[in-house]
Amino acid sequence: LTQLTDKSASAVGIVTALQFAPQLLFLPWTGPAADIFNQRRLLMITQAAMGILALALGALTVSGAIELWHVYVFAFLLGTATAFDGPARQTFVSEMVGDGELANAVALNSMTFNSARMIGPAIAGIAIATVGTGWAFIANGVSFLAVLLSLAFLRVHELFPNARAARRPGGFREGLAYVWQRDDLRVAMIMLFLIGTFGMNFAIWTSTMAVKVFHTDAHGYGMLSSLMAVGTVSGALLAAGRERPRFAHLVIGTGMFAIGCMMAALAPGYWTLGAALIVIGVSVLTFLNSSNALVQLTTEPSMRGRVMAFRMAITLGGTPIGAPIVGWVADRFGPRWSLGIGVAAGIAAALVGLNYLLRRDGPSPRRPLPAIAAAPEQEIAP
């Protein structure tokens, strides 16, 4: 935003789009890979690839050779590794704890991840302001060693292996048909598409509001990111405290998201914006954690990798559509107007979910969920 362009939100939108495009581009392979291959070994490969990319980007930046097109290429390569990493990582949670503890494990996973997000952006903002962006990338690359060591030293004999899918043609189409035939999954995916495509453009909103509206630096941007992480951690803690996730939580989360985006768009000051970002963080984690847990707990174990790949592809894969639009609106009309797109996305998603709840609970008979969904007090975790 400030080093390779003249505060171009459109360039940030393109980078974001390239980072998430592989979620859709490689969808026929990412889900089946998580269902077929050993998830721990697959994660070691994807995490190592992410670490190498971060180190290479850092080296280019430190040397002064970095150009905008380099960032575009690295964004796409990182997105490719993430596309294969996500479904395997999320389904591996159930392999570590079993279905009985899945909902709580998902919530705790989100809490630890977002606790790191409270600390990381603030440290990165200080690092960028003092030693430069390149060294922040290098520190990120080195940190992947901890992830690889953790995976290497897991006590594999204590895992709860998921049922593996057989290698056969048509696995992707089988997963697509499974999702389409389930009303609850289909509606959840539509809601995820709306929020993921037009709502989860936080890098654009936070950076442009920080720089263009309130005229802060990298440290100010990092602080806003940390404040939003306070909200996401709070949302994760609330999810961990629920006995089980319900579809109504998706509607509540998307409605709160629309309110938070409206508060941010109208924020009169920097700290008011920070408070709005906390609301957005709580709401988006409520929505994402509830959808994650519900999808996993009501899906056959041998199908989870493919269904979770669809979930991630729909949530993140729409970013190549939404991010450039949000970036263009921020450049053309201002960052506050771009937040209006998030308001509209939240309202639309809440209405879609509410319509499903009213139809499901109306006079017409309800379609039964698959057998696995009837068993649990086990809930879903994002």
What does this structure look like?
With 382 residues, the protein is mainly alpha-helical. Helix content is 78%, strand content 0%. It has helices at residues 9-25, 27-36, 39-63, 68-97, 102-130, 133-152, 171-180, 183-198, 202-213, 218-241, 247-265, 270-297, 304-317, 319-332, 335-360, 371-374. Helix 1 packs across helix 4 (68-97). It is globular, with a radius of gyration of 20 Å. It starts with 8 loop residues before the first helix and ends in an 8-residue tail after the last helix.
Element string (H = helix, E = strand): HHHHHHHHHHHHHHHH
As a whole number of angstroms, the C-alpha radius of gyration is: 20 Å
**Tell me about the biggest sheet?**
none
The count of DSSP E runs of length 2 or more, i.e. the number of strands, is 0
Helicity level: over 70%
Task: State the distance separating the first and last CA atoms.
Answer: 31 Å
**Global structural class:** mainly alpha
